[in-house]
Design a protein that fits this description.
Length: 143
Amino acid sequence: MSGIRQFRWADYDRVVAVWRESGIGVLSRAELEAKLERDPELFLVAESGEDIAGVVLGTYDGRRGWIFRLGVHPGYRRRGIATRLVAELEKRLHALNCPRINLLVLPDNDAGLRFWQRLGYLPCPDVLCSKPLPARIPNNLSS
Ligand SMILES: CC(C)(COP(=O)(O)OP(=O)(O)OC[C@H]1O[C@@H](n2cnc3c(N)ncnc32)[C@H](O)[C@@H]1OP(=O)(O)O)[C@@H](O)C(=O)NCCC(=O)NCCS
């Protein structure tokens, strides 16, 4: 594997392919643009030659770090790539003085749960609650 680095837009189609192969929901370009305005250094890819082998999307809200959409292409699994992606993300969050990292795993994702526990991420009893908000009215239409 060539290394871990920050996402570049030229990676987008290959990142989407990794997410699709990993059964992970794809972030649209518009969603990613909004994320990259805040903390672009926390969206990482693992390169192998011309391939994107893995991807992880981190965020920091000023109090907690969050890890989302970790995926490694099936052809590159069990080579330590996800471990290296998470280690680099942890290093970057630590540099921001982030004291704790959270993440969500579907309860039937046995491999994912084993992976996270191996890295020291332990299940909590909290239940995720969620509510969608209505789309924001563009400024030029609101008056
Ligand atoms: C989970 C996932 C990211 C792991 O990627 P990876 O690069 O293969 O992981 P690593 O090689 O760094 O694995 C590190 C350790 O985690 C554990 N692990 C990883 N995959 C595992 C699996 N399928 N079953 C059991 N344990 C597993 C092992 O202990 C492994 O060490 P070992 O290979 O020496 O036994 C990858 O399987 C994937 O993309 N899965 C689909 C998407 C997903 O579930 N993402 C996480 C959702 S929160």
